[in-house]
Inverse folding.
């Protein structure tokens, strides 16, 4: 087994994990953290399938909208560049 050096970062991570387990134990009103795993309920994944599908669809829609907005932005920037050039030419 490979040994690891305990750094402040690792110690803080371990302390925070233990703290979270103890807080969960206290919130559930249990005597030990091992009992928390017994009290948690498993939920079937099929209940979340539609939610996940909706999120994926919304993500795809956002990507399409982003691409359209980028195209529009390029057109606007090009128009600004041309107008700026015309203004500078008229000032001379």
């Amino acid at each position: 087994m490979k040994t690891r050096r305990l750094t402040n970062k690792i110690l803080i991570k371990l302390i925070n994990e233990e703290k979270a387990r103890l807080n969960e134990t206290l919130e559930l009103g249990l005597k030990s953290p091992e009992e928390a795993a017994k009290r948690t309920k498993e939920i079937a994944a099929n209940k979340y399938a539609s939610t996940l599908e909706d999120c994926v669809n919304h993500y795809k829609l956002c990507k399409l909208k982003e691409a359209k907005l980028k195209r529009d932005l390029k057109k606007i920037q090009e128009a600004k560049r041309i107008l700026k050039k015309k203004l500078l030419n008229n000032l001379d």
Q: What stands out?
A: The chain has three helices and no strands. The mean pLDDT is 85. Residues 54 and 60 are 10 Å apart (CA to CA). The two ends are 78 Å apart (CA to CA).
